[in-house]
Design a protein that fits this description.
heterodimer; A: 400 residues; mainly alpha; 13 helices; 4 strands; 64% helix; elongated; B: 251 residues; alpha/beta; six-stranded mixed sheet; three-stranded antiparallel sheet; 10 helices; 9 strands; 40% helix; globular
Amino acid sequence: MSDKWNPGAVLDGLTQMAPLLRKELLEAWRDRRALLMAICFSLMFPAALAGGTIFMVKKQSEDVTRLALIGAERAPLIGEQLQSSGLDVESLADGDPRDLLAADYDLVLEITDDFAQRYQDFRAPRLYLYVNSSDTGSGRAQRELQERLGALQQMIVTQRLSARGVAPQLLAPWRLETRDVSTPSSRGALILATVPGLLIMTLFIACLATAVDSSAGERERLSLEPLLVQPLAGWQIITAKTLAVASLGWLGSLLAISALVLLMPVMPLAEFGIQQATTLAGVVAMGLVLLPLALLVAVVQILLALRSQSFKDAQTQLSILQIAPVVLLMVLDMAQIKLADSWQLLPLIGQQQWLKGLLVGDWVSPVWMLAGSAVTLALVVLAIMVGARALQRESLLSAS
Amino acid sequence: MIRVDNINKSFAGKPVLRNLSFEVPDGRITALLGANGAGKTSCLRIICGLLKADAGRVLVGNADPALDPRGARRQLGVVGDREGLYERLTVREYLDIFARMQGLSGKTLAEALAAVREELELGALWDRRTKGFSQGERMKVSLARALVHRPQHLILDEPTRGLDVLAVRLLRKTLLRLRADGTTILFSSHVMPEVAELSDRVLVMAAGQIVGAGTPEQLAAESGCSNLEDSFVALAYGQRPNVAIAQGEPA
C-alpha cells in the first residue's frame, strides 16, 4: 500500500487502470436507482423553470381585478374614473356583497343611497368596500382600488379649493410618486441567475448515489477488499471511481442544459425581455466548464463517503453537505455582491459566473475560464492523492 | 514460498500478533488454525499487504508486501472472509476485469477464463449477474477471481464458511489440484475436520502466536491426543480437553 506518486508513470498507470475503469463505469451506469435520480433531477428543474415562467406570465396577463360597483348610477363619475386596464368595473343596481365576492368578484364597492345628497351638502358621503381577506389576491386589489379612489378624491379636493380661490398646494406641501424602474430584462436576469446554481446542484445530486455506492457501499458489501489486493496503486482506484462518478454527474448536468435550451423556445422569455442567446457553442462551452467541476465534486464526495461509518451515514452526510455550496452560491447571487475577477479562480464560484454569462450570451473571458478550470483540476489531483492515502487506512477493512 | 518473520501487530495498543514467524512451503497446503480472535485474519492481511506490521518482515516469493505491494500482489490470489462481489456485473465480466487488472490480455486471457470456467463449473452462471448468488456460488466466483491469473501463492480466509457439502467438495478438489501443480496454499480455518483432511501442515495460532506446527499426526503425537481437535485445544489452551471439561471450562 506504500504507493509512491510518480508523475512519469501516470500514462502507464492510466492504461493499467482501464479494466478497473470499465468495472466502475459498468457498475455506475447499471445502477438504476442512481441513474433514475440523475435523470429525474436533471429534467425536473428545467421543466419546473419553464413551467414557472409560463405560469408567471400567464398570471400577469390575467391579473385584472374584478370590481362590482353597487349603486353606480348614484355617482357615475366614480365608475368612469375607476375603469382602467387593470380594473374591470361592473356596475350593478343591487346585490349582496357576500354573494358577489363568492361569485368571483375580487372587490365590491357600494355607493350609499344618500351619496348624491351628502356629496352636494359637503357631508362626506360613505362608500363601503367589501373584501374577502382570506383571498390571497384581495390585499393587492384593495391597495390598487384605494390608491385610485385616493387619487380621485385628491382631484375633487383640488377642484373644490381652486373654485374657492385656494391654492391646492397649501394642502399638499409635496406629492409622492412611486416609479418602478425595474425593466422586464432585469426581472428576467433575476430568473436566469438561479439557473447556474441549479445546474451545479444537478451535478451534486447526479453524482451522489454513485459516489456513495462505489465507496461506502463497496466497503459495506465487503467488495472493496478484493480490489485492494490487486496490483493497482491507490490513486488508480480513486481515479477510476472518480471518473465513473463524474461521468454520471456530468451527463446529468449536460442533460439539464440540453433540456433547458430545448425548453427555452416555449418559455415566454421575451415577456421578461430576454432574448434566447444560448447557442450550440454556448451549450458546448457550458458542458466543458462543468467537466472539471464534475471531477472535483465526484472525488470530494468519494472521499467523504470513504470517511463515513456506513452507507447510510455517507448518504446523510453527503445530502447535507451538498446543500451548503449551492446555498452559498445562491446567497452570493441574491446579495448581488460584486466579485473581483480573481474570484473566478475558486471552484463553484468560477463555474457559476461563467455559466451565468454563457446563458445570456455575454462574453466570458477564456483566460479566466482556463485559469479557473486549471485550479479546479489541480484540486482534483490533490484530492485523488488524499484519496489514495485514505485507502491505506486500516479502518477501511472490515473487522473479522 | 511465503515467509513470515517475527511480525508484531497491535490495534489501539492491544497486541494481536506477537513475534509471529512461520514459513509456507511451495506445493503444500498449510492451514492456519485458531479460534476467533487468534489473529489469523490480521496475519493474512499483512501477507496481502492490506495491513502493515508494526515490526517484522513478510516475503511473498521474493517481494515484501510492505515495500513492494504490487509485486507481491501479482504473485498472490486472495479469497477473503465473507467478501462481496459486484452485483451488477456478470461472472464473465467480473473475471475478465480482474484478469485484466492482473495484466492478462488476448489469447492468454481467453484461455485463463476458459480454464476457471471449466474447473470451477461456472458454465451455468457465466452470463448471469452475481446479484442473488448463493454462498456457494459466490465462493466459486471469488475463487475463480483469485485463480484466474494462475498465482504462485493462494491465500484463503475461512474459505468454507457457510458453504454446502457440494461447494466444500469442489473447493477441496480445486485446492488439491493446485497443490499438485506446485501452488503455495495458506488458508485459515477453525473447522477441524476440514483442516485435518486438507492440510499438509497445520499452524496452531493462539493469542497472536504460533503455539504448534506440524502435520495433524505430528500435532497429535506432540500433544498426546488422538485427534486434531483435541490437539488444538491442548496446544491453544494448554490443557488436555478432558481436564478442561472436568473443570467446567470450554473445550
